[in-house]
UniProtKB/TrEMBL annotation:
Transmembrane segments: 26-46, 52-72
Chain intervals for the UniProt region annotation (Disordered): 1-21
Keywords for the protein's UniProt record, in alphabetical order: Membrane, Transmembrane, Transmembrane helix
Domain of life of the organism encoding this protein: Bacteria
Protein source organism: Lentzea waywayandensis
Record's protein name: Uncharacterized protein
Length: 106
């Protein structure tokens, strides 16, 4: 699985590019999922064999479903990271002097 780096939250250009790339990944995941599910259904319906070929087909079909699951897992994880990073507030050094600082009591 390819590791995607997160953009800097202060850069609007990097955040916009990251959101666009995430949207592209979601679209490709939808297309990939629909093609894989169509292929699985077609193989199950049209395969009229038993024995070794049936076992091989079941292994290949299960691998296809695992690939779909892995694709969606990476899309969801990347989307969560992107949403969390966009919600982060600026740190105390970056806060404007006129903004009130939030103190946390331990």
């Amino acid at each position: 699985m390819k590791r995607h780096t997160l953009p800097e939250p202060n850069s609007r250009k990097q955040m916009a590019r990251a959101r666009r790339k995430h949207t592209e990944r979601v679209v490709f995941a939808v297309i990939f999922t629909s093609v894989e599910l169509w292929a699985v259904v077609a193989a199950v319906v049209l395969l009229e064999d038993d024995g070794v070929l049936a076992v091989a087909a079941s292994v290949v079909l299960s691998a296809a479903l695992i690939a779909v699951w892995d694709t969606w897992q990476s899309v969801v994880v990347n989307g969560r990271a992107l949403r969390l990073q966009s919600r982060e507030e600026p740190s105390a050094e970056e806060a404007a002097p006129d903004q009130a600082m939030k103190l946390v009591r331990l």
